[in-house]
Amino acid sequence: MKQARQETTLASWPVVILEILALGAAITAAFIGSGAMGGTPIQEAAGGYLSADSTLLAPSGPAFSIWSVIYLGLAVFAIYQALPQGRRSQTLRAVRVPVAASALLNAAWIAVVQLDQLLVSTIVIFILLGVLIWILLRLVNFGTALRAEHWIMWLTFGLYLGWVSVASIANTSALLSSWNVGIDTAWAPYAAVVLLLVAAIIGLGVTGYTHGKIYTALAMTWGIAWIGHSRLTGTNQSTLVGYAALVIAAALLIGALAIAFSQRHRTESSRP
Questions:
Q1: pLDDT tens-digit profile of 17-26?
Q2: CB atoms inside a 10 Å sphere around CB 192
Q3: Claim: this prediction has a pTM higher than 0.85
């Protein structure tokens, strides 16, 4: 674990409060998107193109339970960054802006989906993906000073990045479906498999780049596996995509664990 030094000065309270408000907006939007506060559930919004059976790359409903873990992590982060050690952290100082941006983009995505704007939602989710990559780069460059900070940051934003990576593919597939691109064509299942392979390669690349952190790969494995489940059990079935997704998910998980083990072994071997 790369160690970051602690700053002697504390982040100002206005900065801390603005961070809490941004994260609170994301969590509030999630309740609206779930239908709990009068909003339309995401799978029913946008003409139903984001439902589990809408496209070949849509995951089954239970896959979205990962958001509960991510939102819990964001809530914990909001509390931690307000504590003295969080206000003093050099790493948190470096990620506060992109974290706030990710929260607001998350809320914006839910808002545009509620307005049935699939094209805009696709643009927003790719901007969100870029911001989460920004956070990842900051975490690698700055490291974490405390073990609690390490777990809060890497677990939350590693999973966040992995899930949004899969969600961006599903969102794009939904948009293309709304334009009748690839509907009932022979090449669509093969294109879906290729996209899943590319996603898995990216997941392995992130694991290597982050020195064996497997959180992003775990979230991507989760999402891809549920895509496989949806293609084998739902109404929009595809044996090719279903089994390929399950194999790709397993290969991604095994590959990520192998990279993590190799990185850990290399680190331990280099110690005097």
A1: 999 999 999 9
A2: 23
A3: yes
